[in-house]
Design a protein that fits this description.
Radius of gyration: 21 Å
CATH superfamily of the largest domain: Type I PLP-dependent aspartate aminotransferase-like (Major domain)
Bound molecules: ligand T4K
Structural class: alpha/beta
Number of helices: 12
CATH class of the largest domain: Alpha Beta
Order of helices and strands: EHHEHEHEEHEEEEEHEEHHEEEHHEHEH
Number of domains: 2
Protein backbone atom coordinates (compact mmCIF):
# COMPACT_ATOMS: atom_id res chain seq x y z
CA UNK A 1 0.00 0.00 0.00
CA UNK A 2 1.36 3.41 -0.98
CA UNK A 3 1.77 5.79 1.90
CA UNK A 4 -0.10 9.06 1.78
CA UNK A 5 1.88 11.79 3.51
CA UNK A 6 0.56 15.15 4.67
CA UNK A 7 1.95 16.80 1.56
CA UNK A 8 4.08 16.10 -1.50
CA UNK A 9 6.29 18.64 -3.21
CA UNK A 10 5.04 19.97 -6.52
CA UNK A 11 7.68 19.76 -9.21
CA UNK A 12 7.94 20.88 -12.82
CA UNK A 13 8.60 18.40 -15.62
CA UNK A 14 12.24 17.32 -15.35
CA UNK A 15 12.96 18.51 -18.91
CA UNK A 16 11.61 21.93 -18.12
CA UNK A 17 13.90 22.29 -15.11
CA UNK A 18 16.90 20.99 -17.06
CA UNK A 19 16.19 23.54 -19.78
CA UNK A 20 15.99 26.30 -17.16
CA UNK A 21 19.33 25.42 -15.55
CA UNK A 22 21.30 24.88 -18.80
CA UNK A 23 22.68 28.39 -18.85
CA UNK A 24 23.91 27.96 -15.27
CA UNK A 25 26.29 25.31 -16.68
CA UNK A 26 27.44 27.70 -19.35
CA UNK A 27 28.00 30.66 -17.01
CA UNK A 28 29.37 28.78 -13.97
CA UNK A 29 27.47 31.36 -11.91
CA UNK A 30 25.76 29.37 -9.16
CA UNK A 31 24.75 31.87 -6.50
CA UNK A 32 25.21 35.44 -5.18
CA UNK A 33 22.33 37.16 -6.96
CA UNK A 34 22.89 35.86 -10.48
CA UNK A 35 20.59 36.16 -13.49
CA UNK A 36 18.07 33.55 -12.28
CA UNK A 37 17.79 35.34 -8.96
CA UNK A 38 17.19 38.65 -10.71
CA UNK A 39 14.64 37.24 -13.14
CA UNK A 40 12.75 35.32 -10.45
CA UNK A 41 12.67 38.37 -8.20
CA UNK A 42 11.06 40.45 -10.98
CA UNK A 43 8.51 37.79 -11.90
CA UNK A 44 7.59 37.29 -8.29
CA UNK A 45 6.97 40.98 -7.77
CA UNK A 46 4.49 40.89 -10.63
CA UNK A 47 2.80 37.73 -9.47
CA UNK A 48 2.48 38.79 -5.85
CA UNK A 49 1.38 42.32 -6.85
CA UNK A 50 3.73 44.00 -4.39
CA UNK A 51 6.14 46.91 -4.73
CA UNK A 52 9.30 45.15 -3.55
CA UNK A 53 10.51 41.59 -3.08
CA UNK A 54 13.83 40.20 -1.94
CA UNK A 55 14.73 36.53 -2.07
CA UNK A 56 16.22 34.49 0.73
CA UNK A 57 17.40 30.97 1.53
CA UNK A 58 14.23 30.11 3.41
CA UNK A 59 11.18 31.49 5.17
CA UNK A 60 12.89 31.40 8.53
CA UNK A 61 15.71 33.71 7.48
CA UNK A 62 13.09 36.00 5.97
CA UNK A 63 11.57 36.54 9.43
CA UNK A 64 14.84 36.53 11.34
CA UNK A 65 16.58 39.04 9.08
CA UNK A 66 13.48 41.23 8.78
CA UNK A 67 13.47 41.76 12.53
CA UNK A 68 17.18 42.58 12.37
CA UNK A 69 16.78 44.88 9.36
CA UNK A 70 14.09 46.82 11.24
CA UNK A 71 16.70 47.25 14.00
CA UNK A 72 14.49 45.60 16.56
CA UNK A 73 17.20 44.23 18.80
CA UNK A 74 15.66 44.90 22.18
CA UNK A 75 12.19 44.67 23.65
CA UNK A 76 9.02 42.65 23.41
CA UNK A 77 7.27 41.27 20.38
CA UNK A 78 3.62 40.24 20.45
CA UNK A 79 3.04 37.01 18.58
CA UNK A 80 1.20 33.68 18.81
CA UNK A 81 2.48 30.29 19.99
CA UNK A 82 0.23 28.42 17.52
CA UNK A 83 2.78 28.29 14.73
CA UNK A 84 5.87 26.50 13.47
CA UNK A 85 9.08 26.75 15.54
CA UNK A 86 10.45 29.30 13.10
CA UNK A 87 8.27 32.26 14.10
CA UNK A 88 9.19 32.18 17.78
CA UNK A 89 12.82 31.23 17.16
CA UNK A 90 13.29 34.18 14.78
CA UNK A 91 12.16 36.52 17.57
CA UNK A 92 14.30 34.94 20.27
CA UNK A 93 17.38 34.66 18.04
CA UNK A 94 17.19 38.45 17.60
CA UNK A 95 17.46 38.94 21.37
CA UNK A 96 13.78 39.90 21.57
CA UNK A 97 11.22 38.58 24.04
CA UNK A 98 8.10 36.94 22.59
CA UNK A 99 4.90 37.89 24.39
CA UNK A 100 2.30 35.30 23.49
CA UNK A 101 -1.16 36.46 22.56
CA UNK A 102 -4.01 33.98 22.31
CA UNK A 103 -5.63 33.04 19.01
CA UNK A 104 -9.13 33.49 17.70
CA UNK A 105 -10.99 30.17 18.09
CA UNK A 106 -12.46 30.38 14.58
CA UNK A 107 -9.52 31.60 12.49
CA UNK A 108 -6.61 30.27 14.61
CA UNK A 109 -4.82 33.58 13.96
CA UNK A 110 -3.91 36.21 16.57
CA UNK A 111 -6.93 37.37 18.58
CA UNK A 112 -6.81 41.10 17.94
CA UNK A 113 -9.09 41.80 20.90
CA UNK A 114 -6.33 40.54 23.20
CA UNK A 115 -3.36 42.40 21.71
CA UNK A 116 -3.72 45.81 23.40
CA UNK A 117 -3.73 44.34 26.92
CA UNK A 118 -0.28 42.89 26.21
CA UNK A 119 1.32 46.13 25.03
CA UNK A 120 3.88 47.64 27.41
CA UNK A 121 6.49 50.37 27.06
CA UNK A 122 8.87 47.63 25.91
CA UNK A 123 6.72 46.45 22.99
CA UNK A 124 8.38 47.08 19.64
CA UNK A 125 6.51 44.92 17.15
CA UNK A 126 3.74 42.46 16.34
CA UNK A 127 4.53 39.25 14.48
CA UNK A 128 1.16 37.77 13.45
CA UNK A 129 0.92 34.48 11.53
CA UNK A 130 -1.49 33.88 8.64
CA UNK A 131 -1.90 30.28 9.67
CA UNK A 132 -2.86 27.48 7.20
CA UNK A 133 -3.67 30.13 4.58
CA UNK A 134 -6.26 31.78 6.84
CA UNK A 135 -5.37 35.43 7.10
CA UNK A 136 -5.22 37.59 10.22
CA UNK A 137 -7.51 40.51 11.00
CA UNK A 138 -5.33 42.88 9.00
CA UNK A 139 -7.34 46.07 9.60
CA UNK A 140 -7.30 45.69 13.37
CA UNK A 141 -3.60 44.85 13.46
CA UNK A 142 -2.94 47.91 11.34
CA UNK A 143 -5.02 50.12 13.63
CA UNK A 144 -3.27 48.87 16.78
CA UNK A 145 0.20 49.13 15.24
CA UNK A 146 -0.42 52.74 14.19
CA UNK A 147 -1.90 53.70 17.56
CA UNK A 148 1.12 52.40 19.49
CA UNK A 149 3.87 52.97 16.89
CA UNK A 150 4.67 49.28 16.44
CA UNK A 151 6.21 47.48 13.47
CA UNK A 152 4.23 44.63 11.91
CA UNK A 153 6.09 41.67 10.43
CA UNK A 154 3.69 39.10 9.02
CA UNK A 155 4.67 35.46 9.00
CA UNK A 156 3.07 34.77 5.62
CA UNK A 157 4.76 31.38 5.18
CA UNK A 158 1.39 29.75 4.42
CA UNK A 159 -0.19 32.43 2.24
CA UNK A 160 1.73 32.48 -1.02
CA UNK A 161 -0.41 33.91 -3.82
CA UNK A 162 -3.33 34.94 -1.60
CA UNK A 163 -5.18 38.20 -1.97
CA UNK A 164 -7.18 40.24 0.48
CA UNK A 165 -9.74 42.67 -0.93
CA UNK A 166 -8.02 42.27 -4.29
CA UNK A 167 -4.55 43.19 -2.96
CA UNK A 168 -1.56 40.84 -2.76
CA UNK A 169 -1.27 39.54 0.80
CA UNK A 170 2.39 40.59 0.87
CA UNK A 171 1.43 44.25 0.71
CA UNK A 172 0.22 44.49 4.30
CA UNK A 173 2.23 45.42 7.39
CA UNK A 174 5.83 46.64 7.26
CA UNK A 175 7.05 43.29 5.96
CA UNK A 176 5.51 39.97 4.92
CA UNK A 177 7.66 36.85 4.97
CA UNK A 178 6.95 33.93 2.64
CA UNK A 179 8.33 30.39 2.74
CA UNK A 180 9.09 28.52 -0.46
CA UNK A 181 9.99 25.28 1.33
CA UNK A 182 9.45 21.98 -0.48
CA UNK A 183 6.28 21.43 1.55
CA UNK A 184 4.62 24.70 0.58
CA UNK A 185 1.98 25.57 -2.06
CA UNK A 186 4.81 27.16 -4.02
CA UNK A 187 8.36 25.89 -3.61
CA UNK A 188 11.88 26.73 -4.71
CA UNK A 189 13.17 23.52 -2.99
CA UNK A 190 14.19 25.69 -0.02
CA UNK A 191 13.57 29.38 -0.21
CA UNK A 192 11.79 32.41 1.08
CA UNK A 193 11.05 36.02 0.33
CA UNK A 194 10.24 39.32 1.99
CA UNK A 195 7.77 41.86 0.63
CA UNK A 196 8.01 45.43 1.86
CA UNK A 197 7.48 49.07 0.93
CA UNK A 198 10.33 50.92 2.58
CA UNK A 199 13.38 51.24 0.32
CA UNK A 200 15.71 51.62 3.32
CA UNK A 201 14.51 48.29 4.68
CA UNK A 202 15.19 46.80 1.25
CA UNK A 203 18.80 48.01 1.26
CA UNK A 204 19.30 46.72 4.79
CA UNK A 205 17.95 43.23 4.18
CA UNK A 206 19.85 42.79 0.92
CA UNK A 207 23.05 43.65 2.82
CA UNK A 208 22.22 41.45 5.80
CA UNK A 209 21.53 38.41 3.65
CA UNK A 210 25.07 38.79 2.30
CA UNK A 211 27.03 39.02 5.59
CA UNK A 212 26.44 42.77 5.92
CA UNK A 213 28.86 43.44 3.06
CA UNK A 214 28.41 46.91 1.55
CA UNK A 215 31.24 46.68 -0.96
CA UNK A 216 34.57 44.93 -1.39
CA UNK A 217 36.17 46.87 1.43
CA UNK A 218 33.28 47.87 3.68
CA UNK A 219 31.31 45.52 5.92
CA UNK A 220 28.97 47.66 7.97
CA UNK A 221 26.39 45.16 9.19
CA UNK A 222 26.61 41.91 11.15
CA UNK A 223 24.72 39.87 8.60
CA UNK A 224 24.25 36.23 7.78
CA UNK A 225 24.38 34.21 4.60
CA UNK A 226 20.80 33.93 3.40
CA UNK A 227 21.09 34.29 -0.38
CA UNK A 228 18.87 32.25 -2.65
CA UNK A 229 21.06 30.26 -5.05
CA UNK A 230 20.53 29.99 -8.80
CA UNK A 231 19.15 26.43 -8.74
CA UNK A 232 16.45 27.40 -6.27
CA UNK A 233 15.60 30.51 -8.28
CA UNK A 234 15.38 28.34 -11.41
CA UNK A 235 12.96 26.01 -9.62
CA UNK A 236 10.94 29.09 -8.67
CA UNK A 237 10.79 30.25 -12.28
CA UNK A 238 9.49 26.83 -13.35
CA UNK A 239 6.96 26.45 -10.55
CA UNK A 240 5.67 29.99 -10.94
CA UNK A 241 4.46 29.16 -14.45
CA UNK A 242 2.01 26.61 -13.05
CA UNK A 243 1.03 28.20 -9.77
CA UNK A 244 -2.50 29.27 -10.72
CA UNK A 245 -3.30 25.78 -11.96
CA UNK A 246 -1.70 24.36 -8.82
CA UNK A 247 -3.95 26.47 -6.57
CA UNK A 248 -7.04 25.64 -8.64
CA UNK A 249 -6.28 21.93 -8.20
CA UNK A 250 -5.81 22.35 -4.48
CA UNK A 251 -9.23 23.99 -4.30
CA UNK A 252 -10.86 20.92 -5.86
CA UNK A 253 -9.29 18.72 -3.18
CA UNK A 254 -10.14 21.11 -0.33
CA UNK A 255 -13.74 21.34 -1.58
CA UNK A 256 -14.02 17.56 -1.60
CA UNK A 257 -12.85 17.44 2.03
CA UNK A 258 -15.49 20.06 2.85
CA UNK A 259 -18.18 18.04 1.10
CA UNK A 260 -17.51 15.18 3.51
CA UNK A 261 -16.56 16.95 6.73
CA UNK A 262 -18.38 20.31 6.82
CA UNK A 263 -21.20 20.32 9.34
CA UNK A 264 -20.19 17.04 11.01
CA UNK A 265 -20.80 17.48 14.72
CA UNK A 266 -17.57 17.57 16.69
CA UNK A 267 -15.42 18.59 13.72
CA UNK A 268 -14.37 22.19 13.12
CA UNK A 269 -12.84 23.26 9.82
CA UNK A 270 -10.94 26.44 8.94
CA UNK A 271 -13.29 29.23 7.88
CA UNK A 272 -13.90 30.34 4.32
CA UNK A 273 -13.00 34.02 4.65
CA UNK A 274 -14.82 36.87 2.98
CA UNK A 275 -12.71 38.99 0.61
CA UNK A 276 -9.90 36.43 0.61
CA UNK A 277 -8.62 34.63 -2.44
CA UNK A 278 -7.25 31.52 -0.76
CA UNK A 279 -4.37 29.22 -1.74
CA UNK A 280 -5.75 26.14 0.10
CA UNK A 281 -2.41 25.57 1.82
CA UNK A 282 -3.49 23.19 4.58
CA UNK A 283 -6.64 21.35 5.59
CA UNK A 284 -6.85 21.42 9.40
CA UNK A 285 -9.64 19.71 11.32
CA UNK A 286 -10.23 20.40 15.00
CA UNK A 287 -11.75 17.38 16.72
CA UNK A 288 -13.89 17.70 19.81
CA UNK A 289 -13.67 14.25 21.34
CA UNK A 290 -16.65 14.84 23.64
CA UNK A 291 -18.95 15.30 20.66
CA UNK A 292 -17.24 13.25 17.94
CA UNK A 293 -16.45 10.28 20.16
CA UNK A 294 -12.79 9.83 19.17
CA UNK A 295 -9.81 11.99 19.98
CA UNK A 296 -7.39 13.64 17.57
CA UNK A 297 -4.70 11.10 18.48
CA UNK A 298 -7.05 8.15 17.96
CA UNK A 299 -7.99 9.42 14.51
CA UNK A 300 -4.34 10.06 13.63
CA UNK A 301 -3.44 6.51 14.67
CA UNK A 302 -6.34 5.03 12.75
CA UNK A 303 -5.29 6.91 9.59
CA UNK A 304 -1.73 5.67 10.08
CA UNK A 305 -2.98 2.10 10.29
CA UNK A 306 -4.21 2.70 6.74
CA UNK A 307 -0.92 4.24 5.60
CA UNK A 308 -2.15 7.85 5.83
CA UNK A 309 0.10 10.29 7.66
CA UNK A 310 -1.77 13.38 8.85
CA UNK A 311 0.19 15.81 11.04
CA UNK A 312 -0.41 17.72 14.26
CA UNK A 313 0.37 21.18 12.87
CA UNK A 314 0.72 22.90 15.37
CA UNK A 315 1.30 20.85 18.47
CA UNK A 316 2.91 21.52 20.87
CA UNK A 317 2.62 25.28 21.18
CA UNK A 318 6.00 26.96 20.66
CA UNK A 319 5.64 28.41 24.17
CA UNK A 320 5.87 24.86 25.57
CA UNK A 321 8.99 23.83 23.65
CA UNK A 322 11.64 22.23 25.84
CA UNK A 323 14.20 24.82 24.74
CA UNK A 324 12.08 27.47 26.51
CA UNK A 325 11.56 25.37 29.62
CA UNK A 326 10.01 27.44 32.42
CA UNK A 327 10.06 30.71 30.44
CA UNK A 328 6.46 30.83 29.20
CA UNK A 329 3.12 29.58 30.44
CA UNK A 330 1.00 27.81 27.85
CA UNK A 331 -2.06 28.31 30.04
CA UNK A 332 -1.94 32.04 29.29
CA UNK A 333 -3.13 31.22 25.76
CA UNK A 334 -5.97 28.80 26.56
CA UNK A 335 -7.57 28.88 23.11
CA UNK A 336 -4.29 28.09 21.38
CA UNK A 337 -3.67 25.30 23.88
CA UNK A 338 -7.15 23.90 23.34
CA UNK A 339 -6.84 23.92 19.52
CA UNK A 340 -3.29 22.55 19.48
CA UNK A 341 -4.41 19.51 21.48
CA UNK A 342 -7.22 18.79 19.04
CA UNK A 343 -6.03 19.75 15.58
CA UNK A 344 -5.07 17.38 12.80
CA UNK A 345 -3.87 18.52 9.38
CA UNK A 346 -5.07 16.17 6.65
CA UNK A 347 -3.09 15.35 3.48
CA UNK A 348 -3.46 17.97 0.76
CA UNK A 349 -1.35 18.17 -2.38
CA UNK A 350 -1.76 18.13 -6.12
CA UNK A 351 -1.75 14.50 -7.16
CA UNK A 352 -3.88 13.37 -4.22
CA UNK A 353 -6.88 11.86 -5.97
CA UNK A 354 -10.47 12.58 -5.01
CA UNK A 355 -10.87 8.85 -4.41
CA UNK A 356 -8.08 9.06 -1.85
CA UNK A 357 -9.76 12.06 -0.24
CA UNK A 358 -12.99 10.04 -0.03
CA UNK A 359 -11.08 7.19 1.60
CA UNK A 360 -9.39 9.50 4.13
CA UNK A 361 -12.76 11.05 5.03
CA UNK A 362 -14.40 7.65 5.38
CA UNK A 363 -11.72 6.53 7.80
CA UNK A 364 -12.14 9.75 9.81
CA UNK A 365 -15.93 9.44 9.85
CA UNK A 366 -15.81 5.80 10.85
CA UNK A 367 -14.03 6.91 14.04
CA UNK A 368 -17.27 8.66 15.07
CA UNK A 369 -18.85 6.99 18.07
N1 LIG B 1 6.51 30.06 9.60
C1 LIG B 1 5.60 29.11 9.48
C2 LIG B 1 4.21 29.38 9.95
C3 LIG B 1 5.93 27.87 8.92
O1 LIG B 1 5.02 26.89 8.84
C4 LIG B 1 7.26 27.66 8.47
C5 LIG B 1 7.64 26.39 7.89
C6 LIG B 1 8.17 28.72 8.58
C7 LIG B 1 7.77 29.92 9.16
C8 LIG B 1 9.60 28.60 8.12
O2 LIG B 1 9.74 28.48 6.72
P1 LIG B 1 11.03 27.67 6.13
O3 LIG B 1 12.24 28.21 6.80
O4 LIG B 1 10.82 26.20 6.37
O5 LIG B 1 10.99 28.04 4.66
C9 LIG B 1 7.64 21.31 7.48
C10 LIG B 1 8.53 22.27 6.73
O6 LIG B 1 9.90 21.87 6.78
C11 LIG B 1 8.41 23.68 7.15
O7 LIG B 1 8.89 24.47 6.08
C12 LIG B 1 6.97 24.07 7.41
N2 LIG B 1 6.84 25.40 7.96
C13 LIG B 1 6.32 23.10 8.37
C14 LIG B 1 4.88 23.43 8.65
O8 LIG B 1 6.37 21.81 7.78
P2 LIG B 1 8.18 19.28 9.03
O9 LIG B 1 9.17 19.09 10.10
O10 LIG B 1 6.78 18.90 9.28
O11 LIG B 1 8.67 18.60 7.65
P3 LIG B 1 8.78 17.08 7.22
O12 LIG B 1 10.17 16.83 6.77
O13 LIG B 1 8.23 16.22 8.29
O14 LIG B 1 7.84 17.02 5.93
C15 LIG B 1 6.44 16.98 6.00
C16 LIG B 1 5.92 16.23 4.80
O15 LIG B 1 6.22 16.92 3.61
C17 LIG B 1 6.54 14.86 4.60
O16 LIG B 1 5.78 13.93 5.29
C18 LIG B 1 6.47 14.64 3.11
C19 LIG B 1 6.48 16.04 2.52
N3 LIG B 1 7.78 16.41 1.92
C20 LIG B 1 8.80 16.75 2.73
C21 LIG B 1 10.01 17.14 2.19
C22 LIG B 1 11.15 17.54 3.07
C23 LIG B 1 7.91 16.40 0.55
O17 LIG B 1 6.98 16.05 -0.19
N4 LIG B 1 9.11 16.77 0.00
C24 LIG B 1 10.17 17.15 0.76
O18 LIG B 1 11.22 17.50 0.21
O19 LIG B 1 8.26 20.83 8.64
Amino acid sequence: MNKILVTRSSMPELNEYVEEIKDIWESHWLTNMGVKHQKFQKELMKYLEVDNVDLLTNGHMAIELSLQALKLNRGEVITTPFTFASTTHAIVRNGLTPVFCDINPKTFTIDTEKIEALITDKTVAIVPVHVYGTICNIEEIDRIAKKYGLKVIYDAAHTFGEKYKGKGIGSFGDVSCFSFHATKVFNTIEGGAVCFEDAEFGKEISRLKNFGIKNEEVVDGIGANAKMNEFCAAMGLCNLKRIDEEIANRKIIADRYRDHLEGVEGLQLAPIQKNVQSNYAYFPVVIDEKIFGSSRNEIKNELERHGIYARKYFYPLTSSFECFHGKFDENKTPVALHISKRVLTLPLYVGLSLREVDRICNIVLECRK
